[in-house]
Design brief:
Layout lengths: L1 H42 L3 H14 L4 H20 L8 H18 L2 H4 L1
Helix pairs in contact: 1-2, 1-3, 1-4, 2-4
Protein backbone atom coordinates (compact mmCIF):
# COMPACT_ATOMS: atom_id res chain seq x y z
CA UNK A 1 0.00 0.00 0.00
CA UNK A 2 2.83 2.40 0.88
CA UNK A 3 4.52 1.68 -2.45
CA UNK A 4 1.34 2.52 -4.33
CA UNK A 5 0.96 5.79 -2.46
CA UNK A 6 4.60 6.67 -3.05
CA UNK A 7 4.34 5.82 -6.74
CA UNK A 8 1.17 7.86 -7.08
CA UNK A 9 2.84 10.82 -5.37
CA UNK A 10 5.88 10.56 -7.65
CA UNK A 11 3.74 10.40 -10.79
CA UNK A 12 1.73 13.39 -9.65
CA UNK A 13 4.89 15.46 -9.13
CA UNK A 14 6.30 14.40 -12.49
CA UNK A 15 3.10 15.36 -14.30
CA UNK A 16 2.89 18.76 -12.62
CA UNK A 17 6.55 19.47 -13.44
CA UNK A 18 5.94 18.50 -17.04
CA UNK A 19 2.94 20.83 -17.26
CA UNK A 20 5.04 23.69 -15.89
CA UNK A 21 7.79 22.95 -18.42
CA UNK A 22 5.39 22.99 -21.36
CA UNK A 23 4.08 26.45 -20.41
CA UNK A 24 7.67 27.65 -20.06
CA UNK A 25 8.53 26.13 -23.42
CA UNK A 26 5.68 28.03 -25.05
CA UNK A 27 7.09 31.30 -23.72
CA UNK A 28 10.57 30.27 -24.79
CA UNK A 29 9.33 29.61 -28.31
CA UNK A 30 7.86 33.11 -28.49
CA UNK A 31 11.08 34.65 -27.14
CA UNK A 32 13.00 32.84 -29.87
CA UNK A 33 10.51 34.11 -32.44
CA UNK A 34 11.02 37.68 -31.21
CA UNK A 35 14.78 37.10 -31.42
CA UNK A 36 14.44 35.93 -35.01
CA UNK A 37 12.43 39.01 -35.93
CA UNK A 38 14.91 41.19 -34.03
CA UNK A 39 17.87 39.82 -36.01
CA UNK A 40 16.05 40.45 -39.25
CA UNK A 41 15.12 43.98 -38.16
CA UNK A 42 18.73 44.71 -37.17
CA UNK A 43 20.07 43.49 -40.51
CA UNK A 44 17.45 45.49 -42.42
CA UNK A 45 17.98 48.69 -40.38
CA UNK A 46 14.48 48.82 -38.88
CA UNK A 47 15.40 50.67 -35.67
CA UNK A 48 11.78 51.25 -34.64
CA UNK A 49 11.02 47.51 -34.77
CA UNK A 50 14.18 46.72 -32.79
CA UNK A 51 13.12 49.23 -30.13
CA UNK A 52 9.62 47.72 -29.90
CA UNK A 53 11.05 44.21 -29.56
CA UNK A 54 13.41 45.35 -26.79
CA UNK A 55 10.46 46.91 -24.94
CA UNK A 56 8.38 43.74 -25.36
CA UNK A 57 11.22 41.60 -24.00
CA UNK A 58 11.71 43.87 -20.99
CA UNK A 59 8.01 44.03 -20.20
CA UNK A 60 6.90 40.47 -20.91
CA UNK A 61 9.72 37.91 -21.05
CA UNK A 62 10.87 36.10 -17.91
CA UNK A 63 14.11 37.56 -16.58
CA UNK A 64 16.33 34.51 -16.73
CA UNK A 65 19.55 33.44 -18.38
CA UNK A 66 17.69 30.76 -20.33
CA UNK A 67 15.35 33.26 -21.97
CA UNK A 68 18.09 35.81 -22.59
CA UNK A 69 20.34 33.23 -24.22
CA UNK A 70 17.50 31.96 -26.42
CA UNK A 71 16.72 35.51 -27.55
CA UNK A 72 20.38 36.33 -28.27
CA UNK A 73 20.99 33.09 -30.17
CA UNK A 74 17.89 33.58 -32.32
CA UNK A 75 18.85 37.22 -32.95
CA UNK A 76 22.40 36.32 -33.99
CA UNK A 77 21.31 33.48 -36.28
CA UNK A 78 18.64 35.59 -37.98
CA UNK A 79 21.02 38.53 -38.39
CA UNK A 80 23.62 36.31 -40.05
CA UNK A 81 21.01 34.65 -42.27
CA UNK A 82 19.58 38.01 -43.34
CA UNK A 83 23.07 39.45 -43.92
CA UNK A 84 23.89 36.59 -46.29
CA UNK A 85 20.87 37.48 -48.41
CA UNK A 86 20.71 40.55 -50.55
CA UNK A 87 19.19 43.68 -49.05
CA UNK A 88 16.20 43.37 -51.41
CA UNK A 89 14.98 40.33 -49.44
CA UNK A 90 14.16 42.46 -46.39
CA UNK A 91 10.47 42.53 -45.57
CA UNK A 92 8.78 45.90 -45.78
CA UNK A 93 8.31 47.88 -42.57
CA UNK A 94 4.57 47.22 -42.10
CA UNK A 95 5.05 43.47 -42.55
CA UNK A 96 7.83 43.34 -39.98
CA UNK A 97 5.82 45.54 -37.63
CA UNK A 98 2.89 43.13 -37.88
CA UNK A 99 5.21 40.23 -37.08
CA UNK A 100 6.42 42.09 -33.97
CA UNK A 101 2.82 42.68 -32.86
CA UNK A 102 1.83 39.04 -33.36
CA UNK A 103 4.88 37.62 -31.59
CA UNK A 104 4.44 40.04 -28.68
CA UNK A 105 0.79 39.04 -28.28
CA UNK A 106 1.72 35.35 -28.34
CA UNK A 107 4.39 35.97 -25.68
CA UNK A 108 1.91 37.81 -23.47
CA UNK A 109 -0.55 34.94 -23.81
CA UNK A 110 2.08 32.25 -23.20
CA UNK A 111 3.73 33.81 -20.15
CA UNK A 112 1.49 35.23 -17.44
CA UNK A 113 2.56 38.60 -16.06
CA UNK A 114 3.29 37.10 -12.63
CA UNK A 115 5.95 34.80 -14.14
CA UNK A 116 7.93 37.63 -15.77
CA UNK A 117 8.88 39.37 -12.52
Amino acid sequence: MKRSALLLCFLSLALSARAADSSTDAGLTEVRDLGRINGQALACDYAEAVSRIKTAMIQHAPKSRRYGAAFEEATNNAFLDQSRKERTTCPDGPTLSGQVDEATQRLQAAVPASVTK
